[in-house]
Amino acid sequence: MGKVYRFARDVLTKLLILAFVVLLIIATIALGMNLNHVANSLAEIAYYSLVLAVIIQLVILIKEGEKGI
Questions:
Q1: Mean pLDDT over all residues of the chain?
Q2: For residue 3, which phi and psi values (nearest 5 degrees)?
């Protein structure tokens, strides 16, 4: 297994999901402060982070399925 693959499997997806949660919390706070444009931007970035994490996990699942692991 390559270093990039191991990093993506072990660290990157977890960081992206953590970024999703943190950004969504900050967006909620911004929305409460009536900063709608900031909240919308943060929420959009958060969802892109989650989508990227899911795509990476799908690729890993497919790769590991091909190896028979």
A1: 92
A2: -65, -40
